[in-house]
Amino acid sequence: MTTNQVPYGYDNFGFTTEQVHAGEVVDAQFGARIAPIYLTAGFLFDSFDHARERFAGNDGGLVYSRYANPTNTAVEAKLTALERGVDSLLVASGQAAITVALLGILRSGDHFLSTPSLYEGSKTLFRENFERFGIEVEFVDDPHDIDDWKRRVRPNTRAVYGETIPNPKNDLIDIGLIADFARQEGLPFIIDSTASTPYLIRPIEHGATIVVHSASKFLSGHGASLAGVVVDGGNFDWARYPEKFPQFSTPIGGAGSPGSPTLVEKFGNRAYLEYTRSVIAGRLGPVLSPLNAFLLQQGLETLSLRVERHSRNSLVVARWLEAQPEVSSVDYPGLASNPSHDLAVKYYPRGTGSVFGFTLEGGQNDARTVIDALQLFSRMSHMGDVRSLVLHPGTTSHAHLSEAERVKLGILPGLVRLSVGIEDEADLLADLELAFAVLRSAPGARGTASADQIVGAR
Ligand SMILES: Cc1ncc(COP(=O)(O)O)c(C=O)c1O
């Protein structure tokens, strides 16, 4: 069985060709065209000596699916190629990817810096769970101000964290600027690229060290399964900072194993991923089932087609929303009026994704009316699905925050979050038009007509 016989991932092919073919496995026994689902816990050893060699990592073969599985390996190779990394690790969810990616670097007593605008689940993970591990997060106020970053660096700072397209506000960060700062400080830069996918941006090409995704979203695309991935850019010199990152520069087996190579000596620029796979994910155990890896593989093969359509539909929807008098703002960087538009032009020539908010001047009551009147959009906590989705962050994902905290984040009572799907744009606009017609149905006492009444009256 061989993988990657053709050197995908080095600009020999276009993105769409790579997403179909990179990492594909040639099945020597039956000629199965698609990497099969290897639902097996472990792998057979031929003999006593063979088992010993496998455990010593000397023949490159597989031991147990908590560490590696052929279905997952094929999908990891595809993602490595698409992100222009050196290695990848699939795990059970996006949250697992963020957790193991950071625990591959951080330990108790460490501190890390983050951009302020993040997925709320990451914020609570950092503030509450990481805090219990003895790892402290600090959020900068203004991610565009390098002095704000610099003055927060401490002797125990070990990483910089951010997101490509944070939702619902889509307040883009300048990835190159933050990557330069991190490099100068000798810190790895981990970036969550869930909302962008490698089709819209490859953060490693802009200086990021490690890319994480919730692969449950656009990468899988169909809302059927959860998955997460950590991609190693292979571009950070871990051995240069042995005091900061001793795990990469101590002999494998610990200080009591003099003579053993270090991870960097043994695995070169894949040392981080190898450590995160075997010591962090392999022990904590958030493994991705090969069944879900297969579903992710199916999704990846159409990624560019979907994301292109998601982005095109989103721009149409954002422009339509911007023209409605009830809407006070639309947080879509593809719009020339958006504060992040210059960064969108710089970093996202193919579009800025499809998860964004808009704010209704009439506040929560209007948000309720519009959300309840939508028929094609599913009311759901998810994003990056082929289906269009809608959510009211103020009373769901951000409900645990105080009013003042929500206002600081721009989560006003009238904010509605959309994840625009791949349906026909005319149908999406018709659904929104219907919902806004319901909103306008009774001036002064908005929203008294139901969507069915409006449709019936047409
Ligand atoms: C940007 C981002 N990162 C990570 C996650 C967590 O992903 P998962 O739900 O797969 O654990 C999410 C989930 O919505 C997300 O939006």
From TrEMBL:
It catalyses: L-methionine + H2O = methanethiol + 2-oxobutanoate + NH4(+); L-homocysteine + H2O = 2-oxobutanoate + hydrogen sulfide + NH4(+) + H(+). GO terms for biological process: cysteine biosynthetic process from serine; L-homocysteine biosynthetic process; transsulfuration. Its cofactor is pyridoxal 5'-phosphate. Its EC number is 4.4.1.2. SUPFAM superfamilies: PLP-dependent transferases. Keywords: Pyridoxal phosphate, Transferase. CDD domains: CGS_like (cd00614). The modification N6-(pyridoxal phosphate)lysine is found at residue 217. It comes from the Bacteria. GO terms for cellular component: cytoplasm. GO terms for molecular function: cysteine synthase activity; homocysteine desulfhydrase activity; methionine gamma-lyase activity; O-acetylhomoserine aminocarboxypropyltransferase activity; pyridoxal phosphate binding. It is an enzyme of class 4 (lyase). InterPro entries: Cys/Met-Metab_PyrdxlP-dep_enz, OAc-hSer/O-AcSer_sulfhydrylase, PyrdxlP-dep_Trfase, PyrdxlP-dep_Trfase_major, PyrdxlP-dep_Trfase_small. PANTHER family: HOMOCYSTEINE/CYSTEINE SYNTHASE, HOMOCYSTEINE_CYSTEINE SYNTHASE. Belongs to the trans-sulfuration enzymes family. This is homocysteine desulfhydrase. It comes from Subtercola vilae.
